Structure formats: structure tokens, C-alpha cells
């Protein structure tokens, strides 16, 4: 698998939310707002990439019997740094999603990539793998939050900077309020997961066969 295939693998074939159904908590809890969904996705992207880089750098000196505690320490360290950066530069977002940023420590997807890939590969492939998995997570949260906010509020809040934002109205019908509630999160994730897998089966695999 070359670097391009490795990067795309995390976005399509092994997308954390839509294909593997891992780390679903933030996809339901913070995606009722596009801005929060994007920043949560960026936080996971940063942690995933830096954890893969760090584990790859340390792989030759980590004792196999204690590798999992060391992986957890590395993940905790990068999550703490991410929390500090968000609290400093986007405090309004951090006030709403900070609890879920802390939960990144327990994300099975990040520990799995550290164990399955970064601990066995060199720096460049490990970073590309982390970027692909992180971008796939960011893509999923962005799509889910876009769908929920647009349908649930009848408008869309688009962040244009760290502290300012504009509101665009796309539809003028009565908002479907359930879509911004927790029950709507489950519904939105289910609908989009089914749509993503249908597109993958209908077009991606068909294209692969034709080649």
C-alpha cells in the first residue's frame, strides 16, 4: 500500500465513524453545531497524527510487555496539550466540547492505530496513517454536524474565524428540532452511516472491479 492509498484508507475504507463504528460518543454529543463538530474533529486529527508520530519514533526502545501503558501515557500527553491549546485559542468552543476532548484518551481508534500500525512502521507512513484516520474522523463529524444543524435549526452557523461567525439560512421550513437533540444524533449517524456504506458499495467497489 503506497502513501496515497494509506491516506485514503483512513477516510473511506476504514473510516472510524462510518465504517468501523468506533469512538461514536462525540459524533452524537457535539455534532448539533457545525463549529463544535469541526473543532472536535480537528482535535482528534491532531492527537491521532502526533500519537502515531511519537509511537513510531519510540518503537525501537519500547519494551513489548509495557507497551500499552506507554501508549496510553503518550495519548494522554497529546490530549492534554490539545486541551491547553483549545482553552487558550478557542475558549468558547472548549467550554462546550472540553469534556469530550478529554475522552479522546479512551478512543479505541487511536490506541488501535498506535498498536497495529505506528509501533511497527517508520515515521512517514505512520504520520500519513494518522493523518488519514484523523481526516476521516474530521470528515465524518463535519458531515454529521452539517446535516443535524441544517435540518434541526433550519439554518447553518459557519465559523469564519476563531471568535466570529455568520449565520446563513438555507431552508425556510419549520426546523425539525429532534435533530439537534441526542435522539437526533443517533438518527443522523445511522442515516449517514447507511448512505456512506451504500456509496462505498455502489461506486467505490464497482470502480475497483472495473480497473
Give your account of this protein's structure.
With 211 residues, the chain is mainly α. Helices cover 69% and strands 4% of the residues. The chain has helices at residues 3-13, 25-29, 34-58, 67-89, 91-102, 108-116, 123-153, 182-210, and strands at 156-159, 165-168. A two-stranded antiparallel ribbon has the order 1-2. Helix 3 (34-58) crosses helix 5 (91-102).
Percent of residues in β-strands: under 5%
Query: How many distinct helices?
Result: 8
Average predicted local confidence, pLDDT: 86
- What is the helix/strand order? HHHHHHHEEH
Give the overall silhouette.
globular
In short:
This protein has 211 residues and is mostly helical. The chain is built from eight helices and two strands; from the N terminus they run αααααααββα.
How is the topology of this model organized?
Elements: H1 3-13, H2 25-29, H3 34-58, H4 67-89, H5 91-102, H6 108-116, H7 123-153, E1 156-159, E2 165-168, H8 182-210
Antiparallel strand pairs: 1-2
Amino acid at each position: 500500500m503506497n502513501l496515497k492509498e494509506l491516506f485514503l484508507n483512513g477516510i473511506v475504507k476504514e473510516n472510524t465513524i462510518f465504517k468501523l463504528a468506533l469512538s461514536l460518543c462525540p459524533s452524537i454529543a457535539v455534532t448539533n453545531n457545525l463549529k463544535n463538530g469541526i473543532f472536535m474533529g480537528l482535535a482528534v486529527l491532531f492527537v491521532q497524527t502526533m500519537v502515531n508520530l511519537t509511537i513510531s519514533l519510540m518503537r525501537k526502545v519500547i519494551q513489548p510487555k509495557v507497551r500499552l501503558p506507554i501508549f496510553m501515557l503518550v495519548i494522554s500527553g497529546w490530549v492534554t496539550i490539545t486541551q491547553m491549546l483549545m482553552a487558550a485559542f478557542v475558549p468558547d468552543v472548549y467550554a462546550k466540547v472540553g469534556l469530550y476532548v478529554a475522552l479522546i484518551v479512551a478512543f479505541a481508534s487511536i490506541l488501535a492505530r498506535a498498536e497495529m500500525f505506528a509501533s511497527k512502521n517508520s515515521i512517514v507512513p505512520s504520520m500519513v496513517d494518522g493523518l488519514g484516520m484523523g481526516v476521516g474522523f474530521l470528515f465524518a463529524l463535519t458531515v454529521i454536524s452539517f446535516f443535524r444543524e441544517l435540518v434541526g435549526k433550519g439554518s447553518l452557523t459557519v465559523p469564519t474565524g476563531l471568535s466570529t461567525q455568520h449565520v446563513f439560512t438555507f431552508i425556510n421550513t419549520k426546523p425539525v428540532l429532534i435533530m439537534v437533540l441526542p435522539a437526533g444524533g443517533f438518527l443522523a449517524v445511522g442515516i449517514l452511516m447507511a448512505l456512506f456504506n451504500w456509496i462505498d458499495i455502489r461506486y467505490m467497489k464497482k470502480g475497483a472491479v472495473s480497473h
